[in-house]
Write a structure and sequence with these properties.
Elements lengths: L1 H23 L6 E9 L7 E11 L2 E10 L10 E9 L3 H4 L10 H8 L10 E10 L2 E6 L2 E2 H4 L8 H17 L25 H7 L14 H8 L7 E8 L13 H5 L4 E9 L5 E8 L5 H8 L12 E9 L8
């Protein structure tokens, strides 16, 4: 009886070793697709999505990052897409820090994901890694919580720490840091819609091949792609009156970003005196949304009038319009 037990024990040990040997021989993938949903409780937008395509080229790695940012304002429902392409002088195995996604135990990943149930989570990164392994396609999740991002946490588990380090590197080489994007646009110029012919990966996104990569998120990559094709809409500003004379040199006020975000619009009425040198003197705001007053005063200070009319008091008005999309009205 003891002999039978001993033989069985040896067979179990050998079988385990053989299985582990086969597992360690899993070939390293030649392409990895990483989807990231960076979410934060300050917005909108509250989510920033990106897909990073890592392709092995021997001792080099081709990196393509496609970022998809949902519309920040329902008034202007246009998503933004940015594409970054770099080539790293290191192998895909080196980029992944020697971690083969095909050999990461699913049980360990699920155990790490349970941390979300402990304590409040206000921000973080939902990470999905797609890879073709010897046994077929695999999707692994290695989410990163706010406690792992905003400060060193001694209890950050192995694979979460790995994915965070990986993103630190990829964000640096691509120059794409989702949470560093401004809440308000720094430029009035809207980015051009990227042609799908410039990237096979972007074409795949447009075709919906990665719509499931972000799980239950309400934003689908293909839908964000379509929103990026919307015709850009911009607020408008117009001088609606200037009596008894018009400026010979006119500068539009700048629509304050905070005013646009707060949906402030309307007409600002003002008066001024034509100075002896043609500049605007004694500028005064008579009525209109207070959030727009300073912008109007700053613009009028740059206007010029005819010196032939110096001393005249000029009354005028400027209209600010949001030009919202029809659905948001």
């Amino acid at each position: 009886m003891r002999i039978v037990i001993a033989i069985s024990f040896v067979l179990i040990i050998n079988g385990t070793c053989i299985a582990q040997g086969h597992k360690s021989q899993e070939p390293f993938p030649t392409e990895v697709v990483i989807g990231r949903d960076s979410f934060i409780d300050i917005g909108p937008p509250f989510n920033y999505y990106d897909l990073t395509f890592l392709r092995s080229e021997g001792e080099k790695t081709d990196v393509e990052r496609i970022s998809l940012t949902p519309p920040a304002d329902a008034c202007y429902p246009r998503a933004e897409i940015a594409i970054t392409h770099v080539n790293l002088s290191e192998s895909l195995s080196s980029v992944l820090q020697g971690m083969n996604p095909c050999t990461v135990p699913e049980k360990a990943l699920k155990a790490e994901l349970k941390r979300r149930n402990k304590g409040l989570v206000f921000s973080g990164m939902n990470v999905s890694i797609q890879v073709e392994c010897a046994g077929g396609g695999r999707v692994m999740h290695a989410d990163i919580l706010d406690r792992d991002i905003f400060g060193a946490h001694p209890n950050t588990p192995q694979y979460t720490a790995w994915s965070r380090t990986l993103f630190d590197k990829l964000d640096q080489v691509t120059g794409d840091h989702p949470w560093d994007k401004p809440i308000f646009p720094v430029s009035e110029a809207a980015p051009a819609a990227p042609p799908i012919s410039h990237s096979a990966a972007l074409q795949a996104i447009a075709d919906g091949k990665f719509d499931s990569i972000f799980g239950d998120s309400s934003d689908r990559p293909s839908a964000l792609y379509r929103l990026a094709q919307n015709v850009p809409r911009k607020p408008f500003i117009e001088l609606t009156s200037s009596e008894p004379i018009h400026p010979t040199e006119y500068v539009d006020p700048v629509y304050p970003p905070i005013a646009k975000a707060a949906r402030v619009h309307g007409t600002v009425e003002f008066h001024l005196t034509d100075g002896s040198d043609g500049s605007a003197k004694d500028i005064a705001i008579d009525s209109g949304p207070r959030m727009l007053w300073q912008a109007v005063s700053d613009a009028i200070a740059k206007w010029k009038f005819s010196t032939d009319d110096s001393g005249k008091i000029i009354h005028g008005s400027i209209r600010f319009g949001l030009n919202c999309a029809e659905k948001s009205k």
